[in-house]
Amino acid sequence: MACNGRYATVQQYNDLMCSKLDLGDPLTIAAVESALDIAASDIHAALAAVGACNCTLASWADAYLRKLNIIDAAVLQNCPCGAALKDEDRSIWMDWLNKQFDMIQSGRLVLCEGETGSEYPAFGTAEIGYTEFGQAQIIQNRMQRNP
C-alpha cells in the first residue's frame, strides 16, 4: 500500500453518509471525489509519520481507512446531498478524527499486518546467575543480543 489515492469510492461515501446523492450528475461526483482525495491526505500524513506507507495492511485496516476517508470528506465537504452536518456535529466528528490520527501517529493503533501497537502488553524478567555457569550464560546472552 502506498500513501496515495483515496480509500473510498463515491458510492461508498453515498452509502455511509448521504444515500441521496445524484450519482448521475458529473459535478456531484467530481465534488465528492475531490473531497475524498483531500481527506485522504490526512490519512497519508498519519501513515507516513509512522512509516506505514509500504506495509501490508491488516485484514481490518482497509475498512477502517475507508471509514476515516468518508467521515473526513463529509466533515470537509459538508455532504452536498441535503443531509448537511451541523457545526456541533462537525466539531464532534473532527475531534474523533483527530483522536484516530493521533492513535495512528503515536503507535497505539498499528494498521500493518503482523505488527503490534505501543499499548500491546509485554514484559520481561531479569536473568539471575546463581552460579558461575549461570553468570557466564547471562554474559553470553548479552553479547549475542548486542553484537
Structure description:
The structure is a single chain. By secondary structure, the protein is mostly helical. The chain is built from five helices and no strands. It has helices at residues 10-18, 26-49, 61-77, 87-106, 132-145. The radius of gyration is 23 Å and the shape is elongated.
Number of domains: 1
Structural class by sheet pairing and helices:
mainly alpha
Q: Let me know the largest β-sheet.
A: none
Give the count of helical stretches.
5
* Order of helix and strand elements from N to C terminus: HHHHH
**Which ranges are low-confidence, i.e. pLDDT below 50, for 5 or more consecutive residues?**
none
| Radius of gyration, CA atoms, in whole angstroms | 23 Å
Query: How many DSSP-defined strands?
Result: 0
Outline, from the CA principal axes? Answer: elongated
List the helices and strands and how they pair.
Layout: H1 10-18, H2 26-49, H3 61-77, H4 87-106, H5 132-145
Helix pairs in contact: 1-3, 2-3, 2-4, 3-4
In short:
The protein is mainly alpha-helical. The chain has helices spanning 10-18, 26-49, 61-77, 87-106, 132-145.
Defining traits:
147 residues; single chain; mainly alpha; elongated
